[in-house]
Amino acid sequence: GRGGQGGGSRPGGAGRGDNRGSRDSDFNRNNNSGAGAGAKRKENDFGRRFDEGGRGGPRKGKGGKNGKGRSNLPPREKIDNTPKKIIVRGEMTVGDLAKLLHKDAAEVIKKLFMMGVMATINQDLDMDTILLVAGEFNVETEVKIVVEDTNFETIEENDEEDALISRPPVVTIMGHVDHGKTTLLDAIRETQVASGEAGGITQHIGAYQVEVHGKKITFLDTPGHEAFTTMRARGAQVTDITILVVAADDGVMPQTVEAINHAKAANVPIIVAVNKIDKPGANPDKVKQELTEYGLVQESWGGDTIFVELSAKQRINLEGLLEMILLVSEVNDYKANPDKRARGTVIEAELDKGKGPIARILVQNGTLKVGDAFVAGDCFGRIRAMTNDRGRRVKEVGPSTPVEITGLTEVPQAGDPFMVFEDERKAREIADKRSIKTRQDTMKSNQKVTLDDLFNKIKEGEIKDLNVILKADVQGSLEALKGSLEKIDIEGVRVKTIHSGVGAITESDISLALASAAIVIGFNVRPEPRAAATAEQEKVDVRLHRIIYKVIEEIEQAMKGMLDPVFKEKIIGHAEVRETFKVSKVGTIAGCMITDGKVARNAEVRLVRGGVVVFEGKIDSLKRFKDDAKEVSEGYECGITLEKFNDLQQGDVLEAFIMESVER
Description:
Elements: H1 26-32, H2 37-40, H3 43-51, E1 85-88, E2 92-93, H4 94-101, H5 105-114, E3 124-125, H6 127-136, E4 140-143, E5 165-166, E6 170-175, H7 181-194, E7 207-212, E8 215-220, H8 224-233, E9 241-247, H9 254-265, E10 270-275, H10 284-292, E11 306-309, H11 318-332, E12 335-336, E13 343-352, E14 356-365, E15 368-369, E16 373-376, E17 379-387, E18 393-394, E19 396-397, E20 401-408, E21 417-421, H12 424-443, H13 454-459, E22 465-472, H14 475-487, E23 489-490, E24 493-502, H15 507-516, E25 519-523, H16 529-538, E26 542-545, H17 548-560, E27 566-583, E28 587-600, E29 604-609, E30 612-624, E31 627-628, E32 631-633, E33 637-642, E34 653-662
Parallel strand pairs: 1-4, 6-8, 6-9, 9-10, 10-11, 22-24, 22-25, 25-26
Antiparallel strand pairs: 2-3, 5-12, 7-8, 13-14, 13-21, 14-20, 15-19, 16-17, 16-21, 17-18, 17-20, 23-24, 27-28, 27-34, 28-32, 28-33, 29-30, 29-34, 30-31, 30-33
């Protein structure tokens, strides 16, 4: 404002832009009242003008010295320029909301105060509060949430059809140990070397490409299906096709079934490679027959699964397998857009002594170039160098291509999403935000499915199926348990067995449970130590039982929301049987070493042999040398006899536990 002199007949002539009225801060308003006439006016005059919304109200003639010349017109009404509707794109501060509503921040703070919220001008407001405040001012709101780059893996970029080109399929090889996965991978690599491909595939970068009839196929050399599932649990969908390797002389084994369930859970087409057909005991038809039980039926039998009979070792029919991969790829028509920023997934990563952090990544969309700034998981960097699967330096790579990159600040994790950003500053900012979010998510309670909160989730409609993984000591009890559980139907929620098998609960079972939000049920079996540790860390609900109806009862009650107070067993220690002595009138004494924790005289024990529970009961006597002991701690030897059980063997493990009541 230029002060009040010579305001002429312009209403509110003390300064320009007065129509902004209430949007100006008090500070500006005080300053704008000007040093001219404003300074000579009486205080009460000033107050009155202030209330009228202009600087001096409507007046004519000379700047109205001492208030003379003021017309007696009624005070001018405030112009209400509150918008009818605002667009909300996410959380914002009080100040930002005030601007959007064309209001003074003080008015918004006052409204919040009336709603019981104490806020300052720079305070962040959540979506609900923003909508409530807007409603208080009778302003409509339209919510348009912008997906922040921070969650870039969730951003779905739609491409024009003509921008898409065919890309190589990405293939993962899975199967039982010793059925020839590695041999098959090596055999496929070597065909490339033999076909005059100079240099061959020397780099171990967790993935490699081969060319068949001028078309490329990318193979992921992941260490088994555990890695595959771990990546899926982290939200990474990298595989297009799964090759299930089954030995013709061995048939379907436990890990074969696991691999099938992992591939089905990821919704990936399966090609069955019946390997070792050159072996004397090979029986491919038996394998095909066994696989029909798991829904894999070959086309000639009326199914839709492709079976290829081959021998990786003798290099028989490898060409047939590669052609089938191309056929499946053609049917599914895998496409990507190379003309945009690169996105992909980290396959492996490590700290190299010479190069620093390195990551092997699969580019899934766009083109990756040397010099690009990127974020991988919670890490960022700029690509210093890229090496392909043949150990050659490359300047840029397109979709479905595996490369090893250097230029990272830290080592990311397998399965982390990868994306290129405009510059390193932006990449750093996003990596920092992601890192904070990861920490916060870790601190929050893990949103895993547990029996205790099952009923609430059913009520809220969050769960339609209860996924379970079943492990039992023998096939008979496994089938009985599976059949009984699948009959349960409460409020439209059913039990869905996504994997079942015989033997101890493995780390692979826990990974699958984590990826599929499942509960693990062990019947007469125990988790392996690493599996137990992973379950504890990832908060996967593992339930162990010895009586079938108890399992059914517990699941039914959980689904109805009426679980009784729980007694949870607490494992206090393990003892390994080193020697056994038979003593008449006493029975078998086990000479044991306490390997961890302690064994107490009043604890219950279970005897585990090869991952299977052989006996569960009480300790009859616990001795150190010839003296009775109340408890024996880790690192000490002791003699143990069990109540009504004598079949103790060298190598058995005694697990001591007590029952504790747990608050719900």
